[in-house]
Amino acid sequence: MTSNAGGSTAEPARAPPSSEHSNDLLVKYSLEQQPELSERPTKIARAERDHIADYEDEEDSENGDNLLVKQIMSSNRRTQRYLVAIEYIGTRFSGSQKQPNCRTVVGVLEAAFQKFIGQPVSIFCSSRTDAGVHALSNVCHVDVERISKRKPGEALPPHEPSVVRRAVNHFLQKDEGDVMVIDARFIPSDFHARYKAQERVYYYRLLSGTEPLSSFEKDRAWHVPQDLNLHAMQEACKVLVGRHDFSSFRAAGCQANSPIRTLDELRVCEAFSTPYFPSAESSLKKFIGEDLSTHSDNLEVRMATSSNYDGQETVNHGSLCEFGRRREHSCFIVTARARSFLYHQVRLLVGVLKSVGTGDLTTCDVEEILNAKSVTAASPMAPACGLFLGRVKYESVL
Length: 398
Description:
Layout: H1 19-33, H2 35-48, H3 62-71, E1 79-88, H4 105-117, E2 123-125, E3 134-145, H5 161-173, E4 179-187, E5 197-208, E6 222-224, H6 230-240, E7 242-245, E8 260-271, H7 280-288, E9 293-296, E10 299-302, E11 330-338, H8 345-358, H9 363-372, E12 387-394
Parallel strand pairs: 3-12, 5-6
Antiparallel strand pairs: 1-3, 1-4, 2-3, 5-11, 5-12, 7-8, 8-11, 9-10
C-alpha cells in the first residue's frame, strides 16, 4: 500500500543512526521483533491487490481495519498522500481495477501520474467498478514523492493539490480523455480511501419508449421499449430497503463472507430524459405537468401531454414546423445508497425493479425473491451501461 512496500533485504550492521532517523528505525525493529504485527500488513496488502471485479464484498470493520491501516501507513516522510476524486466514462475501460493487458481506469491514472512526477505510483480506489460502468465521482488515494530534477535525491515540498489536478488532467487529456481528476487534497498518511468510506451512492438510468435510443445516450442508459409503472417500482423499493440477507441479489462469483447488507436508500424517480440542450417548453412542462402553448400571429403549436412525444402537434401553417424534432423517452433514475454492496447487487436490484415496472413481477414476487436467498432467484441483471457511481462519502479526512 505504501510507496516502500515490499522493501529491500536487510543491510549489514553499521553505526548508530542519526536522531532524525531513529524513530523510523525503532518502528522497523519493533515490527521485526513481533512477527504477529509484521504479518498483518501483508494480509491487507494482498486484499488491496485482489482483482475481484467488485471490491465491496465485505462490511467494513472500523476498529480492526483502522488498526491495520495505521500499521501499513507510509513511513517515508518525503511522500505526501493525496485524496483524488475522478470522473470517467466506463465504456472503453475493462473496469476500474488495474489488470494486465487491459485498459483500466487505475492503469490510465497511474500512467498519467508517472508522466507528471517521473516515477511510478500505486493508486487505491474506494470503489471498484466493472467494465462499462461510469463514475460521476470515484475516490482514490495516492502517495507522491516530489524529487528535485536538478538535484536528484533532494526532496522538495509537496505539490499543491490544484497543481496535481491540473498536471494529471493534462496527461489524461492526451489519452482518450474519458477520465478526469475533479478534485484533490492533502490527507494524512494513515487515511485510506477504501476503509474510511462511510457511504456509497449509485445511480441507474433507464429510458423507456419505443423510439430508438439517441446517439447521445449510447452506452449511458438501459433502453426499455415498454412503458414502466413508476408507482409499482416505488412500492417494490419499500420491500428491498433496509437490512436483509441479499443472497438473491449477488452474483454467483461473489466472494463476500456474508450476504447481509444494509440498504439505506432505494428509490425510483422520473427525470428529464436527457441533459443535452432541453427546450424551455419541455422543461416547464415537466415541472408543472400542463400543456404549454406558444402563440405567433397565425401559428399555434400545442405540445403533447405525454412524455413520449408522438409527433401529432396541431400546426396551422406548414407541415414541416416540427420536422427534425426527436421524440423523447421517459427517464427513470434508480438511486441506491449503502455503506457497501455485494458483487452486482445494484444491477440485480435494478433488473427486478424493471420487471416490476413492466408488469412481469409484482411486489409479492419481489418479497419471494428476497426470501428465496438464492443467486438464481432474481430477474436478469441490468446491463452495466446505465450504472453510475455517484458519490463516495467520508466523515472527515483529519
